[in-house]
Protein backbone atom coordinates (compact mmCIF):
# COMPACT_ATOMS: atom_id res chain seq x y z
CA UNK A 1 0.00 0.00 0.00
CA UNK A 2 1.41 3.44 -0.93
CA UNK A 3 2.35 5.66 1.98
CA UNK A 4 -0.13 8.46 2.38
CA UNK A 5 1.32 11.98 2.07
CA UNK A 6 0.49 14.66 4.63
CA UNK A 7 -1.57 16.33 1.91
CA UNK A 8 -3.69 13.22 1.49
CA UNK A 9 -4.14 12.91 5.27
CA UNK A 10 -5.27 16.55 5.38
CA UNK A 11 -7.82 15.83 2.64
CA UNK A 12 -9.13 12.93 4.69
CA UNK A 13 -9.34 15.13 7.81
CA UNK A 14 -11.45 17.70 5.95
CA UNK A 15 -13.80 15.26 4.30
CA UNK A 16 -14.43 12.23 6.44
CA UNK A 17 -17.68 12.25 8.40
CA UNK A 18 -18.62 8.75 9.54
CA UNK A 19 -21.72 7.12 10.99
CA UNK A 20 -20.94 3.96 12.96
CA UNK A 21 -23.91 1.65 13.32
CA UNK A 22 -23.36 -1.18 15.82
CA UNK A 23 -25.16 -2.56 18.87
CA UNK A 24 -21.92 -3.57 20.61
CA UNK A 25 -20.57 -0.71 22.80
CA UNK A 26 -17.10 -2.24 22.59
CA UNK A 27 -17.11 -2.08 18.80
CA UNK A 28 -18.45 1.47 18.87
CA UNK A 29 -15.53 2.62 21.03
CA UNK A 30 -12.92 0.84 18.91
CA UNK A 31 -14.38 1.96 15.59
CA UNK A 32 -14.69 5.56 16.80
CA UNK A 33 -11.01 5.45 17.76
CA UNK A 34 -10.06 4.08 14.37
CA UNK A 35 -11.95 6.86 12.58
CA UNK A 36 -10.33 9.45 14.83
CA UNK A 37 -6.92 7.90 14.16
CA UNK A 38 -7.36 8.38 10.43
CA UNK A 39 -8.41 11.95 10.98
CA UNK A 40 -12.18 11.65 10.68
CA UNK A 41 -15.11 12.50 12.94
CA UNK A 42 -17.87 10.08 13.85
CA UNK A 43 -21.37 9.73 15.16
CA UNK A 44 -22.81 6.48 16.47
CA UNK A 45 -26.11 4.63 16.25
CA UNK A 46 -26.86 1.62 18.46
CA UNK A 47 -28.96 -0.14 15.86
CA UNK A 48 -30.33 0.17 12.36
CA UNK A 49 -33.51 1.92 13.43
CA UNK A 50 -31.48 4.72 15.05
CA UNK A 51 -29.48 5.06 11.84
CA UNK A 52 -32.68 5.47 9.83
CA UNK A 53 -34.01 8.05 12.30
CA UNK A 54 -30.75 10.03 12.15
CA UNK A 55 -31.14 10.30 8.38
CA UNK A 56 -34.85 10.98 8.47
CA UNK A 57 -34.74 13.69 11.14
CA UNK A 58 -31.39 15.38 10.82
CA UNK A 59 -30.88 15.44 7.09
CA UNK A 60 -27.39 14.28 8.02
CA UNK A 61 -24.85 13.64 5.36
CA UNK A 62 -22.09 11.16 5.99
CA UNK A 63 -19.14 10.29 3.81
CA UNK A 64 -19.07 6.79 5.20
CA UNK A 65 -21.44 4.54 7.12
CA UNK A 66 -19.97 1.51 8.89
CA UNK A 67 -22.88 -0.90 9.14
CA UNK A 68 -22.84 -3.89 11.46
CA UNK A 69 -24.88 -6.81 10.18
CA UNK A 70 -26.44 -8.36 13.27
CA UNK A 71 -28.36 -5.82 15.33
CA UNK A 72 -31.64 -5.75 17.26
CA UNK A 73 -34.59 -3.53 16.17
CA UNK A 74 -33.37 -3.41 12.58
CA UNK A 75 -30.43 -5.39 11.23
CA UNK A 76 -27.76 -4.24 8.81
CA UNK A 77 -29.37 -5.71 5.70
CA UNK A 78 -32.73 -4.07 6.35
CA UNK A 79 -31.11 -0.77 7.33
CA UNK A 80 -28.98 -0.63 4.21
CA UNK A 81 -32.02 -1.30 2.01
CA UNK A 82 -33.98 1.38 3.82
CA UNK A 83 -31.23 3.98 3.56
CA UNK A 84 -30.88 3.33 -0.18
CA UNK A 85 -34.65 3.69 -0.55
CA UNK A 86 -34.28 7.04 1.21
CA UNK A 87 -31.69 7.89 -1.47
CA UNK A 88 -28.81 8.06 0.96
CA UNK A 89 -25.71 8.39 -1.20
CA UNK A 90 -23.07 7.73 1.47
CA UNK A 91 -20.57 4.94 1.04
CA UNK A 92 -21.99 2.12 3.14
CA UNK A 93 -19.50 -0.49 4.27
CA UNK A 94 -20.93 -3.63 5.80
CA UNK A 95 -19.12 -5.17 8.76
CA UNK A 96 -19.57 -8.92 8.99
CA UNK A 97 -18.35 -11.59 11.32
CA UNK A 98 -16.31 -14.59 10.20
CA UNK A 99 -19.30 -16.77 11.03
CA UNK A 100 -21.27 -15.27 8.15
CA UNK A 101 -21.32 -17.47 5.10
CA UNK A 102 -20.96 -16.43 1.45
CA UNK A 103 -24.70 -16.33 0.91
CA UNK A 104 -25.24 -14.04 3.88
CA UNK A 105 -22.48 -11.72 2.69
CA UNK A 106 -23.93 -11.65 -0.80
CA UNK A 107 -27.38 -10.75 0.55
CA UNK A 108 -25.80 -7.96 2.57
CA UNK A 109 -23.97 -6.61 -0.49
CA UNK A 110 -27.14 -6.80 -2.57
CA UNK A 111 -28.95 -4.67 0.02
CA UNK A 112 -26.89 -1.75 -1.27
CA UNK A 113 -23.43 -1.89 0.25
CA UNK A 114 -20.42 -0.42 -1.48
CA UNK A 115 -18.05 -2.79 0.32
CA UNK A 116 -18.02 -5.46 2.95
CA UNK A 117 -15.33 -5.96 5.58
CA UNK A 118 -14.88 -8.73 8.10
CA UNK A 119 -14.42 -8.00 11.78
CA UNK A 120 -12.29 -7.04 13.50
CA UNK A 121 -11.87 -3.68 11.78
CA UNK A 122 -8.48 -2.04 11.57
CA UNK A 123 -7.17 1.21 10.08
CA UNK A 124 -5.51 -0.76 7.29
CA UNK A 125 -8.85 -2.21 6.21
CA UNK A 126 -10.63 1.15 6.11
CA UNK A 127 -8.03 3.48 4.60
CA UNK A 128 -7.96 1.86 1.11
CA UNK A 129 -11.74 2.24 0.85
CA UNK A 130 -11.69 5.97 1.38
CA UNK A 131 -8.88 6.69 -1.07
CA UNK B 1 17.14 5.42 37.32
CA UNK B 2 17.88 4.76 33.63
CA UNK B 3 18.94 1.22 34.50
CA UNK B 4 15.72 0.69 36.43
CA UNK B 5 13.64 2.05 33.56
CA UNK B 6 15.52 -0.02 30.99
CA UNK B 7 15.05 -3.14 33.08
CA UNK B 8 11.33 -2.49 33.48
CA UNK B 9 10.98 -1.77 29.77
CA UNK B 10 12.71 -5.04 28.93
CA UNK B 11 10.46 -6.89 31.37
CA UNK B 12 7.43 -5.29 29.74
CA UNK B 13 8.50 -6.25 26.23
CA UNK B 14 9.35 -9.80 27.20
CA UNK B 15 6.06 -10.23 29.05
CA UNK B 16 4.06 -8.83 26.14
CA UNK B 17 5.80 -11.14 23.68
CA UNK B 18 5.14 -14.10 25.98
CA UNK B 19 1.41 -13.34 25.94
CA UNK B 20 1.47 -13.68 22.16
CA UNK B 21 3.65 -16.78 22.25
CA UNK B 22 1.31 -18.47 24.72
CA UNK B 23 -1.66 -17.63 22.51
CA UNK B 24 -3.41 -15.28 24.91
CA UNK B 25 -3.29 -12.40 22.44
CA UNK B 26 -3.30 -11.96 18.67
CA UNK B 27 -2.69 -9.15 16.20
CA UNK B 28 -5.91 -7.35 17.04
CA UNK B 29 -4.44 -6.48 20.44
CA UNK B 30 -1.49 -5.00 18.59
CA UNK B 31 -3.94 -2.89 16.56
CA UNK B 32 -5.55 -1.64 19.79
CA UNK B 33 -2.16 -0.65 21.19
CA UNK B 34 -1.40 1.25 17.99
CA UNK B 35 -4.61 3.25 18.46
CA UNK B 36 -3.57 4.37 21.95
CA UNK B 37 -2.00 7.82 22.01
CA UNK B 38 -1.03 10.61 24.41
CA UNK B 39 -4.57 11.95 24.37
CA UNK B 40 -6.02 8.57 25.40
CA UNK B 41 -3.26 6.84 27.40
CA UNK B 42 -5.73 4.42 29.01
CA UNK B 43 -7.54 3.42 25.81
CA UNK B 44 -6.43 -0.21 25.82
CA UNK B 45 -7.09 -0.63 29.54
CA UNK B 46 -10.58 0.84 29.14
CA UNK B 47 -11.41 -1.35 26.17
CA UNK B 48 -10.26 -4.56 27.84
CA UNK B 49 -12.09 -3.57 31.01
CA UNK B 50 -15.32 -3.32 29.00
CA UNK B 51 -14.52 -6.66 27.42
CA UNK B 52 -14.09 -8.35 30.79
CA UNK B 53 -17.37 -6.84 32.02
CA UNK B 54 -19.02 -8.27 28.90
CA UNK B 55 -17.47 -11.67 29.58
CA UNK B 56 -18.78 -11.74 33.12
CA UNK B 57 -22.34 -10.78 32.11
CA UNK B 58 -22.49 -13.13 29.14
CA UNK B 59 -21.08 -16.08 31.07
CA UNK B 60 -23.62 -15.56 33.85
CA UNK B 61 -26.42 -15.33 31.33
CA UNK B 62 -25.30 -18.46 29.48
CA UNK B 63 -24.89 -20.30 32.75
CA UNK B 64 -28.51 -19.58 33.62
CA UNK B 65 -29.64 -20.73 30.17
CA UNK B 66 -27.77 -24.02 30.61
CA UNK B 67 -28.80 -24.61 34.20
CA UNK B 68 -31.74 -26.98 33.76
CA UNK B 69 -31.11 -29.97 31.50
CA UNK B 70 -34.78 -30.27 30.60
CA UNK B 71 -35.10 -26.64 29.57
CA UNK B 72 -31.94 -25.41 27.85
CA UNK B 73 -32.40 -22.32 25.72
CA UNK B 74 -29.75 -23.05 23.08
CA UNK B 75 -30.79 -20.02 21.06
CA UNK B 76 -29.97 -17.80 24.03
CA UNK B 77 -26.69 -19.59 24.60
CA UNK B 78 -25.81 -19.29 20.92
CA UNK B 79 -26.52 -15.58 21.02
CA UNK B 80 -24.22 -15.20 24.03
CA UNK B 81 -21.45 -17.18 22.34
CA UNK B 82 -21.81 -15.09 19.20
CA UNK B 83 -21.44 -11.87 21.20
CA UNK B 84 -18.52 -13.20 23.17
CA UNK B 85 -16.76 -14.41 20.04
CA UNK B 86 -17.22 -10.99 18.48
CA UNK B 87 -15.91 -9.12 21.52
CA UNK B 88 -12.93 -11.40 21.99
CA UNK B 89 -12.08 -11.03 18.33
CA UNK B 90 -12.29 -7.24 18.63
CA UNK B 91 -9.77 -7.06 21.48
CA UNK B 92 -7.44 -9.82 20.35
CA UNK B 93 -8.32 -12.29 23.10
CA UNK B 94 -7.25 -15.30 21.07
CA UNK B 95 -7.79 -18.14 23.51
CA UNK B 96 -11.23 -16.87 24.51
CA UNK B 97 -12.17 -16.58 20.84
CA UNK B 98 -10.97 -20.13 20.12
CA UNK B 99 -13.05 -21.57 22.96
CA UNK B 100 -16.05 -19.71 21.53
CA UNK B 101 -15.57 -21.52 18.22
CA UNK B 102 -15.86 -24.90 19.98
CA UNK B 103 -18.68 -23.54 22.11
CA UNK B 104 -20.67 -22.58 19.01
CA UNK B 105 -20.24 -26.09 17.61
CA UNK B 106 -21.69 -27.54 20.81
CA UNK B 107 -24.63 -25.13 20.61
CA UNK B 108 -25.27 -26.06 16.98
CA UNK B 109 -25.74 -29.73 17.90
CA UNK B 110 -27.48 -28.86 21.19
CA UNK B 111 -24.86 -30.65 23.26
CA UNK B 112 -25.49 -29.40 26.79
CA UNK B 113 -22.55 -31.21 28.36
CA UNK B 114 -20.23 -29.85 25.71
CA UNK B 115 -21.63 -26.37 26.26
CA UNK B 116 -21.04 -26.63 29.98
CA UNK B 117 -17.44 -27.68 29.43
CA UNK B 118 -16.91 -24.78 27.05
CA UNK B 119 -18.54 -22.39 29.48
CA UNK B 120 -16.14 -23.49 32.18
CA UNK B 121 -13.23 -23.15 29.77
CA UNK B 122 -14.20 -19.69 28.57
CA UNK B 123 -14.63 -18.56 32.17
CA UNK B 124 -11.15 -19.84 32.98
CA UNK B 125 -9.59 -18.26 29.89
CA UNK B 126 -11.05 -14.80 30.35
CA UNK B 127 -10.05 -14.71 34.02
CA UNK B 128 -6.56 -15.87 33.15
CA UNK B 129 -6.26 -13.18 30.49
CA UNK B 130 -7.58 -10.58 32.92
CA UNK B 131 -4.83 -11.45 35.39
CA UNK B 132 -2.15 -11.42 32.70
CA UNK B 133 -3.22 -8.05 31.33
CA UNK B 134 -3.43 -6.57 34.81
CA UNK B 135 0.19 -7.60 35.30
CA UNK B 136 1.04 -5.98 31.96
CA UNK B 137 -0.69 -2.72 32.88
CA UNK B 138 1.04 -2.77 36.28
CA UNK B 139 4.38 -2.96 34.49
CA UNK B 140 3.34 0.00 32.35
CA UNK B 141 2.55 1.98 35.49
CA UNK B 142 5.88 1.11 37.04
CA UNK B 143 7.69 2.30 33.93
CA UNK B 144 5.83 5.61 33.94
CA UNK B 145 6.37 6.08 37.67
CA UNK B 146 10.07 5.45 37.18
CA UNK B 147 10.10 8.26 34.62
CA UNK B 148 10.29 6.10 31.52
CA UNK B 149 8.20 5.68 28.39
CA UNK B 150 6.19 2.58 27.56
CA UNK B 151 7.94 0.69 24.72
CA UNK B 152 6.19 1.11 21.43
CA UNK B 153 7.18 -2.25 20.02
CA UNK B 154 4.24 -4.01 18.43
CA UNK B 155 4.64 -7.79 18.35
CA UNK B 156 2.92 -9.62 15.58
CA UNK B 157 1.59 -13.12 15.97
CA UNK B 158 2.06 -15.54 13.14
CA UNK B 159 -0.44 -18.35 13.39
CA UNK B 160 0.44 -20.17 10.24
CA UNK B 161 3.66 -21.45 11.74
CA UNK B 162 3.27 -21.70 15.52
CA UNK B 163 6.97 -22.49 15.80
CA UNK B 164 7.84 -19.05 14.44
CA UNK B 165 8.68 -16.68 17.25
CA UNK B 166 6.76 -13.43 17.12
CA UNK B 167 8.78 -10.61 15.62
CA UNK B 168 9.10 -7.20 17.19
CA UNK B 169 8.18 -4.42 14.80
CA UNK B 170 10.17 -1.27 15.42
UniProtKB/TrEMBL annotation, chain A:
It comes from Brassica rapa subsp. trilocularis. The keyword Phosphoprotein applies. The lineage of its organism: Eukaryota, Viridiplantae, Streptophyta, Embryophyta, Tracheophyta. The modification 4-aspartylphosphate is found at residue 68. SMART domains: REC. Signal peptide: none annotated. This is Response regulatory domain-containing protein. The gene is A05p053460.1_BraROA. Keywords: Phosphoprotein. Residues 17-131 form the Response regulatory domain. It comes from the Eukaryota. PANTHER family: TWO-COMPONENT RESPONSE REGULATOR (PTHR43228), TWO-COMPONENT RESPONSE REGULATOR ARR22 (PTHR43228:SF1). Pfam families: Response_reg.
Automatic annotation (TrEMBL), chain B:
GO terms for cellular component: cytosol; nucleus. The keyword Nucleotidyltransferase does not apply. Residues 40-143 form the HPt domain. The keyword Acetylation applies. PROSITE patterns: HPT. Keywords: Acetylation, Cytokinin signaling pathway, Cytoplasm, Nucleus, Phosphoprotein, Two-component regulatory system. PANTHER family: HISTIDINE-CONTAINING PHOSPHOTRANSFER PROTEIN 5, PHOSPHORELAY INTERMEDIATE PROTEIN YPD1. This is Histidine-containing phosphotransfer protein. It comes from Brassica campestris (Field mustard). The lineage of its organism: Eukaryota, Viridiplantae, Streptophyta, Embryophyta, Tracheophyta.
Amino acid sequence: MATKSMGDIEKIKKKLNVLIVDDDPLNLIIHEKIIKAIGGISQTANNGEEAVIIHRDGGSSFDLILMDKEMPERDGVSTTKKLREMEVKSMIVGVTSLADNEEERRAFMEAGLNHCLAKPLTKDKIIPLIN
Amino acid sequence: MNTVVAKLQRQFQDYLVSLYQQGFLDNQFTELRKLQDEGTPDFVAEVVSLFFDDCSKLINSMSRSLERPENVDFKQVDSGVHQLKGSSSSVGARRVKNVCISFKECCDVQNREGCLRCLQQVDYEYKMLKTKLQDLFNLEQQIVQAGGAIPQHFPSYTILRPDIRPCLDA
